[in-house]
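WARN  no MSA supplied for this record, continuing single-sequence
INFO  ligand: 2-deoxy-2-amino glucitol-6-phosphate
INFO  echoing inputs
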Amino acid sequence: MCGIVGYVGHKPVVDILLDGLAQLEYRGYDSSGIAVKCSDSIKVYKAEGKLANLRDELSFHAYELSKSTMGIGHIRWATHGAPTVINAHPHTCNCGNLVIVHNGIIENYKELKAELEAKGCIFKSQTDTESVAHLVASIYAEVKDLTKAVHLATQKIQGAYALCIMHNDEPNKIVATKRNAPLVIGLGENEFYIASDVPAFIKHTKRAIYLEDNQVATLTPDKLIIEDENSAKIEPKVELLPWESVALSKMGYKHFMLKEIHEQPDIIRNILVGKLKTSDSEIELNEVNLTKETLKNLNRIQVIACGTSLHAAMIGKYIIENFCSIPVDVEASSEYIYRKTVTDKHTLVIGVSQSGETADTLTAIKQSKARGSHILIITNRPDSAMAREADSLLSVNAGIEVSVAATKSYIAQLTSFYLLALYMAEIKGTMKSDDLRNIKSEMLLLPQKIEQILSHKEEIQKCARKYSGTRDFIYIARGINYPTALEGALKLKEISYINATGYPAGELKHGPIAMLDETMPVLSILMKGSVYEKLLSNSEEAKARNARMIALTNSTDPKLDDLFDFIIRVPEVMELLSPLIAMIPLQLIAYYIAEFLGKDVDQPRNLAKSVTVE
Ligand code: AGP
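INFO  complex generated
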C-alpha cells in the first residue's frame, strides 16, 4: 500500500503530482505529501488525512511552486507510526538535502536506526522509511553520487520497498528502485513519470517500463538510465499500456460502491459474451493454457487469495469439486507463504486477486511457480504483477473498482470460477449433459435476476435502517453459501465498523450460540436446496434464544413468516448458482447501514484498496 508518484520534465509538476496521487488514493489515504524542486532548494509539503487536505495546504503556495517541473509525491497507508504530519512522506535526512518517498516495509529499520543514531543522525518520525533517508544521505556524503548511494544503500536494506529519492546537490534527478513492491516508469517527450501504478500517469503517456526488483533507475528530463543490481546498464522493455484514461465518475450515485453494485448485471453479461453463448454450446476459455490431456489428468488444485477474493476462492472450491471431482484446497495467501506447502508441477495453482498486486498472494504465487506449478491468475488487472507471473490469465474485466469494499470484482471473480469449473467439467466429462445445460441456461439469466433485486431495493433499505443501531451482527449459512455469509459479514464490518461475523450455521451450537440474546441480529442465508431444511432448524435454534431473526431467501414458504422478523426475498435460482444472487442484497445491506450511519463508504478508515505489504 502507499502510493508513489514522481515527475521530471518541463511541465508544472504540482498538478501532475496531485492528479497522480488522486489516482493512487485507493492505496491509502492516511496522509499525503510532495517534495518539489524550487529554484533554490527542494521544498516539502505534507498534510494529514485525505489528499484534499494537501491540496488546501498547497493552494497557499501556488505562485511560488508554479515554475517547478520536478518532484515526488506520496499517499500513505500507515504501517509504522500513526497517521500524523510528522510521519507523512516525503522524509528527509537531517540537513534536508535528501528527500525520499517509500512504499513497503523496511524490516531491519530498527538495526539501521541504531547504527545511524550512533553516527549522529536524529530521527524525527516513527516510520521505518526515515532510516532509509538517513542511510542514503550518509552514503551520499561519501560517494557524492545519488545513483551509486542508492545502489549501496539497497545492499543494507531488508524488506519490501519502492523508493523515489531526490537530492539538492543533484537537482535535476530522481533516483528510484524497488524490491517486491510495484514501480512503473512512464515515458513522455523529454519527460518521465514514475508511479506505483499506471493510472497515476496514463492520461499523459501509454509507453511504460515496469521496473524489476533491484534495478535502479535514474530519471532526468532528457535521459533515463536503468541499471541492474551490479550497476550494469540494461536495455529495458518498453510496453504499450492497454489502458485508456477514464474519468472516474459516480454517474449520479452517491458513492462509487453503490454505482459498482449496480454495474454487476452488465459485468456478468460481458464476462459471458463469447465464452458461454447458449445453454447447448461448449464453454470457450482459450485463456486456459493447459492441454486437454493435462486438464483431464489434473488431480489437485490449490487456490490462494486474501479477503474478498478468498471468499470467491472458497466458492470456487465448492463448484470445482462439485462439477469436476477434483480436490481443491483454498488458503489465505498470508498463511500459505509461511509453511511447508506441497504444491508441485502436478498441481494447478490459482491465484485470485482484484488488484493483482496483493503482496501475500504475489509471494505465494511466486513460491508455487518456483516449484513448477502451472499458475492461473484470476484478476481484474491484466497489467498487474500477478498477471505477469501467470501461465494462464483469466481477466475478469470488471472495470476499475474505486470503492475500497470489493463488490463487482467479487461477482466477476465468481462468474469466472463458474466458467472455469464448467470448462474443466466438459473436458473431464464429469457432469451429466442435462445438468450442464440447466446450469448454463440459468447462468444466462443471472443478470436479469440481479437487475430485479436492484430495482426493488426499498425492502433492503428498510432492513438496513431497522438494524443499523446494532453493535454486532451474525450471518449464518451452510454449504455453498457459507462463504457468502463470510463475505456479507466482511462487507458490513469494513464499511460500517459493526462487529459482524459469518458462521457455518451448523457450528452455531458449538459455541457462538452463547452470544445470542434479544439484541443480536442473525441473518440466515436460506436458499432452497440441499441444506435448506437443516438451516431452517439452525434458524429455529437461534430464534429460541431470542435473536432478532432476518431471512435472505428465495423461498415463499409461509412458515418463514413466524420464524423471521424480517424477510428479504430474492428471485428463484438453483442452489449451485445462488451465491451470485444472495450476495447482492448483502452488499446493499452493508452499503445502506454504513450510509445511514454516515460512514465514509468508499474510503473506510484504516483500509486501502491494494495491500502491497505482507
Ligand atoms: C474487500 O472488500 C477488501 N477490501 C479486501 O479484503 C480485499 O479483497 C483483499 O485485500 C484482497 O485484495 P485483492 O483481491 O486485490 O488481492
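The chain is about 35% helix and 20% strand.
INFO  checksum written, moving to next record
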